[in-house]
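Aim 2 progress update. The chain analyzed this quarter is reproduced below.
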Amino acid sequence: MRRALLAITGLAASTTALVVFKGSPGATQVAQNLPSAQPVNPTPQDVDPSAAPPVEPVAGAPTPSVAPGTPSSPKPSKTTARPAGTRTTTKAPTAPRTTTKAPQPTNRRITGPGVDNEYGYVQVQIVVSGNRIVDAVALSLPSGGESDIHSDDVSGRYDGTGGEVVQKQSANVNTVSGATETSNSYKQSLRGAIEQAF
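Predicted structure tokens:
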């Protein structure tokens, strides 16, 4: 490629020199002594032809196929082509996460057996959620006279979501002072309800 460029450049230069010499007076003898195949001003092998001054084309002279100033050996352009054997992996879309809450345990109402004592009739009902007692209530307690006072004391101590039955989660509750019979009857009915529940 380089030799071809040098030859074309030399040919164009020699043709230009001949035209110039022929046109100037007294230059006919000099132009005849020049060899036609040799370039007038050949560029050395180690000089870059792109650094040579540009040569003006002459009418009728062949035009070089490579423009002056063009590097003789073009650098190959970098390609980033993917090798044929490589695999492109794309991440499959994941399904959205669904968070399901555990089913809430349903509340169950269990009524204990009724218990008679010398003051009256006692019956207890508990509310159970899962494996816990969440509420207790006396459905029936002795009434009339002093029994009303004692029944209120028993109910106030054992019943409700914050009562001793829910706190202790068993029938082992403390006896209410002054209402021993009613307390024991309450515990007995409560024990029966717990046995049914669990």
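The longest helix spans residues 2-23. Strands lie at 107-111, 115-117, 120-129, 132-140. These observations will guide the mutagenesis experiments scheduled for the next reporting period.
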